[in-house]
Task: structure prediction
Amino acid sequence: MDYPLWLIPALPLAGFLLNGAASLFFGWRRAAAATARWRAEHPDEEHGHGEAPGAQAHASHAPGAAHGDDHAHGGGHGHQGPALPWLERLFYGVVGVGSVGLAAVLSFGVVVPFVKESLASAHGLPPAVEVVYQWFSSAGYTVDVAFRLDALSALMLAFVTFVGTLIHLYSVGYMQNEEGYGRFFAYLNLFMFSMLILVMADNLPMLFIGWEGVGLCSYLLIGYYYDKDFAAAAGKKAFVTNRVGDFGMLLGIFGVYALFGTGSFSFLDAAKAGAVSGAGPLSVYAVCALLFLGACGKSAQVPLYVWLPDAMAGPTPVSALIHAATMVTAGVYLVARTSALFVLAPDALTLVAWVGAGTAFFAATIGLAQNDIKKVLAYSTVSQLGYMFLACGVGAFAAGMFHVFTHAFFKACLFLGSGSVIHALHHEQDMRRMGGLWRRTPVTAWTMAFATIAIAGLPPFAGFFSKDLILGSAFGAGHPLLFGVGLVTAGLTAFYMTRLARMTFAGEFRGPEDVKSRIHESPLTITVPLVVLAALSAVAGLVGVPAVLGGTNVFGRFLAPSLAHVPEHHVSHATEYLLMGLSVAAAVAGIVLAWRWYGQAGATEETPSAPARAFSERTGLLGRLVANKWNVDEGIEALVLGPFRAIGRFLWRGFDALFIDGIANASAFLVELAGDLIRFFTTGNVRNYALTFTLGLLALAVYVWIR
Amino acid sequence: MPGLAHWVGLSFVLFTIGVVGVLARRNLLTVLMSIELILNAVNINLVAFSRQIGDVGGHVLAVFVITVAAGEAAIGLAIVLALYRLKGSVNIEDASEMKG
Amino acid sequence: MPFPLSDTLLILPELFLTTAGLVLLLRATAVGKAGERSIALLSVASLVVTGLLLWVPAALAGGAARPAFGGMIAVDRYSAFFKVLVLVAAAVTILFSLRFLGTSPYPSGEYYGLILFSTVGMLFMAAGTHLASIYVALELMALSQYVLAGYFKQETKSIEAAAKYFILGAFSSGILLYGLSLVYGATGTLDLAAVSQALAQGPRTPLMVVGVVLVACGLFFKIASAPFHVWAPDVYEGAPTPISAFFAVGPKLAAYAILARIFFEGFGPSAGDWSRVVAASAALTMVVGNVGALMQSNVKRMLGYSSIGHAGYALLGLLGYGTEYGLWSILIYLTAYALMNLGAFGLVVLLEAKGYAGESVDDFNGLAKKNPWAAAAMVVFLLSLAGIPPTAGFVGKYFLFSAAMKAGWVWLAILAVLMSVVSLFYYFRIARAMYLVEGEGELKWREEPAVTAAIAVCAAGTLLVGILPQPLVALARTCLLP
Result:
């Protein structure tokens, strides 16, 4: 490569700066123009009394009453104000897509030769580290701004920039009527920058900066419709939940420093050599558990998953890019990246595996009964992330990353497809008011069908290979129980995805007539990314065909140098065929069951919600529990928040009012007293000042003399 | 014949008078004069030490101090004048508008 | 001690700047008020040329410290570092003054001339290695500044500031001189290196201790550290705002240059004595500056108190004498200090409509809506002043506090952190006013590209040092005293 690596993240950063500056500038000019208009209309009023008119013009959106979706229903088109001038829109689009697209081109220019050479050599290429500058150095602890290119970061780099470019392109069409178009692209570019810093960082502090950066962008983009309460609340929920994880993550980074004396990823080599300085296995376990807590927050694992479904309040491209394909996989990336450390603490790996498996199953059950199309996909994402952690936990880090890779394509495709559906139905997200869309939106329907088959795990689509690899690894590593959970989850996945497809695309349309007449296929900027992603959902798995099917796991061989070396557990070909058969059977069972249950059962115009009811009717109490998301939010409310509130109330009324307020008031009083004292001595009279001088001088002289 | 101790003692007395003058007098002109006293105390010290040690450095610095003191007096008087024009008084306590 | 005539080349920048100041003074009488802008721009140009001319003595010295004029001054990287900072501060001050002075009835020649002369004083202060040359340079700087403080002679506040500054300044330099004379008596020399030798050999005499304490106190006045700080808020409030910015930065930089040089190079052997003075004053200064600022509603006054607090932080660096952090942490901090304070004062300059209006915190109300760029720049300065990454202020404080810890002054470092927390309150009052309070009425704003450019440079520098500290750290490490 003949250009430096730092150029790749620098491009989206430049895009962010340009778009941010432009949208600030144009926003300011619009506000100024509004002020001028307001003045012209109110010539007799004195300048600027009352509210600032510019601000008034800006904040006059009606608050949307809708809940839980990314667009306001009906009249509350808060953000769909007057369209921006086309030239301004073009600028945002070109800068936004262009910077990310160029970054993608550059990263492929780096990654493709790397992959070629790596696969050609026997043990892969050593990581290429590019130190841009020394960030700071103090007392033996040096942190460089350094980028790392090895198999793991090459993989992330390739699919993050690729999927990112597609989704940026998609956003051009999807967001075109938004007033905050420029702001949206600025945030999205900032996200790409942070994500690239995260995956290319050569040390933990820098990774953490990217980590926090993507968290910030996630918060900003979830709360993109900031004048809607639910969006703002969802943003806050995501932010707070992630802070819990980041707390662990930060402690974990300190722990790594304590163990190895460095934050640079060179510590992984030390870990591989077993050179942990001065600490027992317990503290390695603690460090891993803390890092994993961070991963749980970012990747929405139990118990920190609650923010991700709410995050669907953001615009759909955001859900696809940040909350499905890229950011949420950062936790898996972190575990894979530090796999050399994790294998030193087998208990930590067991923890990872069980949290992953539990999350996979748990979230899948909730997904069974959701009616909001994006919520189904959100729970599905949580569940699939659980699979990835399950893989890491049984030592199959490559399998986990493989699932990250394939999942990025089919889940992005599903989200973008759902966005296309929502777009076609004019901001309808409830699947009970859909149906029969495949006639009107064939491209969306076909692409989503591909992605659905992929996630359900039917061969030879992408999801089959990665999921099968995970299940096989779990079984092979001697965890039949984990395998069982994974298998059941695979069936559930197939079920809820078929349900989604069936309720959305098949049957008859159940929504209002006026909407029906306006259903339309989305523009090219939306369908082209869909087609590309659907194609990849179909074929991306072919890079990891297992040996038993006559292929070679190129993917695993490529990644191996970056991951911890875990002894492979070989199972016989017969067992492998059996496992595959089981997982395919589970998927087929799920598909068939869902297709039957959600057929035309009672789906007339009079009872549009009949298909949705089918599930709980057929499954009784359990089904109702599932439909209520296992009452987790209520449980957290009752078991965690409730007691906390009670304690809080006690602390507020009793402890706080008397004690803390006492301290706070006392310290405020003391500070104020000190301030008054200072003011008292600052009399304004020079003679007093000179006196202060002299007394101070005498005091200091005495203080020094009597030491 | 007075010795070093006498000169340094005289200097200290002058210095103290000067400091007390700055602290105690309200009239800006008197304050200016007190400052001159401090500088002259310094000069006596410098010259006395210089002679005792046999080094001309102190003498030279004393000449510089005298020169600078002249400049200082000029600027000080200009400020007194400006204050008098605005306030009609050279009482330093009349210039205590800013405080706190 | 004789010296070769070629030594004059070593002070070529200073000679040039003095000449330029005299020429501009004369030229201003010829062109009058109408040619004010040209005078100001020529002043900036001469400061830039002076900065370029710094290369001549540096080349002659060849990178090593070279004494000149029989040991009166030294040409070394340490002084060059301070000289560049001082020149930048002076140039920014002049840019700030452009429109400010133009709307006032006062002549411009003397104003810019005095700034240049004061700058010459600072340049010599940075270089001085002999107590006599240091004193004369200090007075050259101070005398020019007394006049500048009272430059708006029709304004009572300005004259009051001048009177206070003058009386206390003259008083403190008297005390400094008395201390110098005692040190001279105790060591028999005024040359810093020789003073150091004499101190190392001789016993700890009362004469010496009192001398050191008096010198320290005289210099503490110039950096406005408690209890010698009382003049600062009044003078900053009363002086014309660009001059306040100059006072807050220029003299402090120069005074720190000589403070560190006198303490490290001259009084090094009696570090046990002066470090106690420094520690006591640092503790008091941090508390007084930050708590005092809490109570202010006038932004200039608040920045005055805040700069007192910052002087206290910087004193921590002096305590690092003998540790690896000592001096260069001060160099880094003062760079950050100069950038962020000049920037913050620059925004006050822009906000001041006429006279002394626009100084209240309330005048910042709603600035974010009216001028988002200005508000964003102010936030950068406030973050930096409060010491929050990624800004220069954080980097500076980090190294200063490390220096205090390394030198064993843990309680001072803790106090410094606590006081930084206190400082958040008053800095964020301005941020709050800009972003959360609706502004009333029209923005009173002086559109002036020169000021905007100067502020932009300060903001960029503040961020750059915060994000990329290493080049500055590396540079500062090569600019230490021998």
Q: What stands out?
A: The helical segments of chain B are 4-24, 28-53, 57-87. The mean pLDDT of chain B is 91. Chain B is about 80% helix and 0% strand. Chain B touches chain A through 13 residues (CB under 8 Å).
